[in-house]
Design goal:
The chain is mainly alpha-helical. It is built from 3 helices and no strands. The longest helix is centred in the C-terminal third of the chain and has 33 residues, at 68-100.
């Protein structure tokens, strides 16, 4: 059965089977930007894990192990996660460009 879409950054890379795991951040000696960057990397790893899961469902569907509905639900989850990640990245770039334009 399909499960709910986790919030970006809510997945632990160890749980998702992601190849690259970001080392835990020492919050005592980090800047707010570093914390935000680490959260963004973790979120993108979560999106990658969702994509891997959708691809696995497609393979399982082609073998007849899962129903078409289950495969389509996973593909739709992946599509939404990628769209959301793209929107967040685009908004961050836009915000950074606006900040660059502020006279000092």
């Amino acid at each position: 059965m399909a499960e709910g879409i986790p919030a970006i950054g809510a997945l632990n890379p160890a749980q998702t089977g992601a190849d690259t795991i970001v080392a835990p951040v020492n919050t005592e000696n980090t800047t707010p930007f570093q914390v935000m960057l680490d959260a963004a990397i973790s979120g993108l790893q979560s999106v990658s894990a969702i994509e891997d899961k959708a691809n696995a469902y497609i393979v399982q569907y082609s073998r007849g192990n899962v129903s078409m509905e289950e495969a389509l639900i996973e593909v739709q989850k992946m599509t939404l996660a990628v769209q959301m990640a793209t929107t967040v990245v685009n908004q961050a770039v836009s915000t950074f460009k606006e900040i660059e334009q502020i006279p000092v």
